[in-house]
Amino acid sequence: MELISYISILLVIIICMIVLLRWYISRAIDKKIFAFQNDVITKHVSEVENIYNQMRGWRHDYHNHIQMLKAHLSLEQYTEIGGYLNKLDADLTNVDTIIKTGNVTVDAILNSKVSLALASKINVNAKAAVPKSLNISEVDLCVVIGNLLDNATEACLKLSETDRIIRIYIDVFNDYLYISITNAMSGEVRKSGTGYISTKGTSRGFGLIRIDKIAKKYGGHINRQNEENAFATEVILPLQ
Question: End-to-end alpha-carbon separation of the chain, Å?
Fold first, then answer.
């Protein structure tokens, strides 16, 4: 009888230790993911602020541009006016919104990431249409799209400039938000069972984990596929 009691107590202690260990590991992972998410959001905010600062700078100089054009006009220097307007048009194109989806949050995320990709000599083909308001958290949307484009950009940077390409397609189908990111790549992807794992090492794989958790949170679905020299990720999130 005493042996049975001893074994029972030992089993209870072991179970408690297992529960505490699982709780500790889960909490440690959540803390790392939370810290990673904050870093991602901070990075996105910085990228958007850079775009807005460029726009503010152009607006600040707007008065000076007008005065210069008036001066050329008063001297009937029409050729100079044409050249000056061409320069202004090129300058404005650099700070104007590259993609207009209809949703301010998605615009901010996409344009900040696409601007960085273009600056890295990556050819970007983008088509996106998103409702003005969504029931999906702006933070979650920022994490999903931001991480997908960060991963796509990093993969392209390993290629020669002529081979770098990212395709973006975002739309709504039957009350589902559909996000598709395809990028050129080199080498082989890493898989674990039926899923893919990060090639950045264990300390930098939280982007994939976070995307998976967000999809699960909304009852969505993720499809990752790799073909020769290309990798594609589809994220489908219910809007109801």
Answer: 58
